[in-house]
Amino acid sequence: MGNLIGQSVKRVEDQRFITGKGNYTDDIVLPRMTYGYILRGNMAHAKINDIDVSAAKAHPGVVAVFTGKDIADSGVNGIPCGWQVDFKNGDTMKEPAHPMLVADKVRYMGDGVAIVIAESKEIAKDAAELIVVDYEELDAVVNAKEATQEGAPLVHDEAPLNKSFDWGLGDAEATAEALANAHHVTTLEFTNQRLIPNAIEPRSAIGHYEVQNDRYTLYTTSQNPHLTRLLMSAFVLGIPEHKVRVVSPDVGGGFGSKIFHYAEEALVTWCSKQLERPVKWTAERSESFMTDAHGRDHVTKAEMGFDADGKIVGLRAITYANLGAYLSTFAPAVPTYLHGTLLQGLYTTPAIYVDVTGVFTHTTPVDAYRGAGRPEATYLLERLLDLAALEMKVDPAELRLKNFIPPFDGVDEPGYQTQVALQYDSGNYEPVLKRAMEMVGYEAFREEQAKAREEGRLLGIGFSTYIEACGIAPSAVVGALGARAGLFESAQVRVQPTGKVSVYSGSHSHGQGHETTFAQVVADKFGIPLEDVEIVHGDSEAVAFGMGTYGSRSLAVGGSAIVKSIDKVIEKGAKIAAHKLEAAIEDIEFAEGKWTVKGTDKSIAFGDVALTAYVPHDYPEGVEPGLDFSSFYDPTNFTYPFGAHIAVVEVDRDTGKVELKRFVACDDVGNVINPMIVDGQIHGGIAQGVGQALFEGAIYDESGQLLSGSYMDYTMPRADDLPDFEVDRKVTPCPHNPLGVKGAGEAGTIGSTPAVVNAVIDALAPFHVKDIDMPLTPERVWRAMQPKTNGREVHS
Amino acid sequence: MSVPIKVKVNGKEYSHSVEGRTLLVHYLRDELRLTGTHVGCDTTSCGACTVIVDGKAVKSCNVLAVQCDDAEVTTVEGLSEAGNLHPLQEGFKEEHGLQCGFCTPGMIMTAVELLERNPNPTDKEIREGLEGNYCRCTGYHNIVKAIQFAAAKMRGQEQPLEKEVAHG
Amino acid sequence: MIPNAFEYQRASSVEDALNLLHENGDEAKLLAGGHSLLPAMRLRLNEPEKLIDISRIPELRYIEERDGFITIGAATTHDDIEHSDLIKSHLPMMTEAAGLIGDQQVRNKGTIGGSIAHADPAADWPASLLAAEAEITVKSVNGSRTISAANFFHGLYMTDLAENELITEIRLPIPAAGTRSTYVKFMQPASRFAIVGCAAIVSGNGTADKVRVAFTGVSAKPYRATGIENALQGNAVNADSIASAVTSATDGIDPLSDHFASEDYRRHLAKVFAGRALNAIA
What we know:
The complex is a heterotrimer of chains A (796), B (168) and C (282). In chain A, 28% of the residues lie in helices and 24% in strands. Chain A is built from 20 helices and 30 strands. The radius of gyration of chain A is 28 Å and the shape is globular. The termini of chain A are far apart. Chain B is 30% helix and 16% strand. Chain B has five helices and five strands. Mean pLDDT of chain B is 94; it is low at 163-168. Chain C is an alpha+beta fold. In chain C, helix 10 packs antiparallel against helix 11 (239-245). The longest helix of chain C is centred in the C-terminal third of the chain and has 19 residues, at 263-281. Chains in contact: A-B, A-C, B-C. Chains A and B meet through helix 1 and helix 18 of A and helix 2, helix 3, helix 4 and helix 5 of B.
């Protein structure tokens, strides 16, 4: 009690997970439950001429079969998008319908054409094999830039050239002028490849309609159950929101992919109403590969101009962002407001312009995946900087130090106004880079590298200094930018009569450890034992409202809402204490779990005040009984964590295989409640960022078939692919939220990817290699080392 | 077509009739309601379903229940004795070796066999021993530490041995 | 994830298995460790009507020395092979190959007979069996026959096995004293199957009495690189001679190509890994 903030408290949620007592959606069994299996198109683009479900319906044990036509006939709507980004010329964003099951056409492999509901999952799957669909296969397009060319196959007839929107930010003219007058311009054209999130728990949903009270319950693997409730009830199914309960129990990782409202959630709920029985659907992994929203997938050309001293004078980026076949919940925001607005980076660049076209293709919808836009922005900046350093023959660390924004704490001054709309809250960038360089032993490494090169060994070091915008977000600001929701958070702090505390948070925990960190905050502030605090989350029936967990926002926004309620409890407690202690309210102070009359030893303990509040026999006049407060916290700004990552690699000259030998990170995520958990978040983030750099990437063939559709074809980082991570921290508190915290969930992923790629390019310096597309597979690296004639690769 | 089986799970004897195609993981989860064993993939890759069958770690998604007739199975639910956590369970908690918890039972069960075979592993040996298990949350860093914690404890040492620092 | 429904039959002996196989013909598949068949069945790429479980037949699980051979029962697991002292003392490449298959859980269940019957072009065993000049004993109700490893593998998932035949034993000639062997592998990073697996055996000091080099993963069919063998056999085996010999690693071979390794790259890797294997035991 007390002093819990800042301690590496062991996680309270671990007990159930390590004993196999976690309660994930697929673990739930309800009476009379049925099982759904969704038959998917498995073609990227095809017209459905006919569908015959008679044999499936007749299969013993089948309860029902519904097709896209049944859904359309029922009058329900499609899956909505939560963010609107219009065209530069003012035209409205193209937002084609996204039905739960398709009736006319499949537009990517994962489109569902029918659902079979049966007494067991085995029967459902067997019966689905009996459905006969007559398809007419059509040409497909999978690459965002190619999709915008005249004559490319159209995903939706209402979106010419497959464009959903185009968008620009910054000063195009000033940037053009700066680049034209620059001493040196570095240009890079690259693909930030498509990733598949791969939370280890596949998505699952159970719809449960109870006819006796006309109520719906949806159990789902969601990062934000309240948002799912709102979208599904109001926009898709048209059922009253107060008749819908959404429960998101233990969730086995999300990384963004479980933010969105998915067709299957609405589908099982709708089916349950038709059948008056619970309907469960759980994705097989191959379905997850096809239908979980993917991440990244940008095709970009970027130019960065420098003056003769190496100061950045301008930056221009033109990006085609692949949105997939339909607009997922936050899809339009990711390549625009979460990407374009981050192109200031940590640097004083005076002129920036970014142009983004959002494009439909015959692929899985793309949305936020850990970092969401910010990894793409960081990759763009950090690759350009390292390439510029190489071209200008300057040290990449020096080049960064030269261009850093000077320190600002955001307390006495307003923060740093960027060229791309955002105002950074607080920052001090040099110390994180200097510390990371010290940790890696930069000078000694360069000596080791030179010696290794003499022996023919290829060692490399790569830097990445990043900033991210977290704690999303001030509702009015995002509303002005097209968000169709507010991005506040709610929290209720209920002090029970015995002084035990229940906290109801709208932030969902699926690995982040809220049940521990939030309890630390509450126990610390109240001066009570950690065990006396329980964090409740993930149930719309228990928690008043919530905007969920993503964008590293839980502590900065959700935690701040909790603090607001804590303050209200302490304030009301003071009134009760003043009455009991016969003192003036002004003379009461709260510390170490008790209210005390200042300057005396007269005090009343937390538990006694709690009991008094619920047994108000001797009670102040005009004060309501009870000690229970709800708060909504809407942040005044984003938070801006930052850091420096350094990778050390060795490349096998014969095979091109990259060994990540060391990974050093010094991050500044503001104040830290639980260092152990923050380190864990950084570790996991780094692994995913390294995954993008070296291993992962979705691959479609020309017909739109996902070739990397299983763990046999999509490389996940394993334990023996990674080193121990060396992490350290600096602390620059956030000036605008009560805990001074910024967010740590995505930092590792955002920072690490370019560091690894830069290290490989550095290792390949003897071969004068400038760039290699991610993932840096052995073959790609090996090819980069082969001699070239007239730009053509020569095979051995 | 159902096949009768007798199987001992976590020390308890069960007799059931199962379909030939019923996978061990579905038998454990659906029939015995031991839901600590998870399904994370359909290609025998992720290791979330790892259990011990007759002393060896196996992926229960790729074993038929009928193949376990007369076998002895241990799942994560059967690890702690009389309410005392197994050193590996303790290690995962102490070293923050889990986040979302979904891969954890499989990681722990894999590590049970790993430490049986090699009570004093190096970090590298642990990493290699986990090649059949995916974790998307932790980056594996703390999982390695968790297993070292358990190894030390099982060897009768209080603390994990001071690990050699790879670089200065 | 859920296989099709099938009829399950458990064979109690080899004889029992052969009779069941005979009675059920092409409707039945044999199940040993299940690590080749069940994955295909779970994706419904393979939907047999009947499954004959041979994983409980003790007479199929052994590693013994007999008549100048190491004999391995077909239902012996990769893990058993990896930890056999007998095998390690004579043919360490088999030990190394076993340890590089899949992961520990897979090695605990998967069997050598099951693996070679499946004949995945990227599986590990074929290279070592070819290099060791192994013999494969198969039985049916009609009797038994022995197939050389060279004649056993026909191509992509194709072998010399008839529908009613069961592999019972893999026989490895015990090499002359002083023979060295090794297996090296460049892994497909997702599946950890072999993009290139190379097994090599060298006997004799200074001058090589015998050299055997075989590849898996490179092409649809595993093969012996006779060009390399001929270049080195009877000659000094050293870094220079190896470098020159391995240039023929893929002569006459039509390599596979996929998004992890193109044809060119596979050709290159075959040379690299033949070089690594041979240099390690030269």
